[in-house]
Specification:
Blueprint lengths: L1 H36 L15 H15 L3 H9 L8 H4 L5 H10 L3 H10 L5 H19 L29 H15 L1 H19 L3 H11 L5 H4 L7
Length: 237
């Protein structure tokens, strides 16, 4: 039980680091792409021509009331008293992954959505949304210190470029790791390789404690963690 606890602790920390990289890449590319497309409107994220009205209506209570407390945003409003919002490049920097994902799903233009999803190697926007929701789910489990290896996703991982996912794997950590590895590979193949090596190292530490522990992890995650199997997650851009 202690060995499983340490294994879970290790993989939570590993995945959290790499999810943070994906989060930064998603936020950065989305901000850059849409700020260039809507350069005449620095606050395009609350423009009802760009995003759904429901997102605009709830933006203050769901996002900006919290963002306003940040020192950089407070400074902006001190200097620009007539601005209702700081521009996108300042505001989106302080939005959570969940809020960024809601902004993405609220975009009215399919072209805007596809420009972003294609950058990350996903052709269908619905699959990209599913992948990012999967990543957000794992991030929240890691952040709250909940048990990860035996966790169940609240929605299935859809079929897509992250690789073949068996029916009994769709709601399990193994499927989520395929998604995280795929997305990491779109950002940096070197970092994707590092992720795979780190996960295998955590597994080998557990395996050396007993074969029964190995079986527990493989059956609950629905994933083979040995180096030969886990290395198959490696993709090329």
């Amino acid at each position: 039980a202690v060995a499983l606890y340490y294994f879970d602790f290790d993989i939570r920390n590993i995945l959290m680091r790499y999810i943070s990289r994906i989060e930064v890449a998603f936020r950065t590319y989305m901000t850059y792409t849409l700020s260039n497309r809507y350069r005449d409107d620095p606050c395009w994220f609350v423009n009802p021509n760009v995003v759904d009205q429901s997102f605009v209506d709830s933006f203050d209570s769901n996002c900006y009331d919290g963002i306003r407390k940040n020192a950089n945003i407070r400074r902006h409003h001190k200097h620009y008293k007539n601005d209702k919002y700081a521009p996108a490049w300042k505001t989106l920097e302080h939005m959570t992954l969940g809020s960024m994902l809601t902004l993405y799903t609220s975009l009215k233009s399919v072209t805007d959505k596809r420009n972003i999803s294609l950058y990350f190697g996903v052709n269908q926007t619905a699959v990209f949304e599913n992948y990012m929701e999967t990543i957000r789910c794992i991030r929240n489990i890691c952040a709250h210190g909940s048990v990860l290896y035996d966790s169940k996703l609240f929605q299935e991982v859809k079929r897509g470029p992250a690789g073949k996912i068996a029916a009994d794997e769709k709601y399990r950590l193994g499927a989520a790791i395929k998604v995280i590895s795929f997305m990491m590979g779109r950002i940096s193949s070197n970092r994707q390789h590092d992720l795979i090596i780190e996960l295998n190292k955590a597994y080998m530490t557990l395996k050396n404690k007993g074969a029964s522990l190995q079986q527990i992890v493989e059956s609950t995650t629905h994933m083979a963690w040995d180096l030969a199997s886990i290395s198959q997650l490696q993709t090329t851009k």
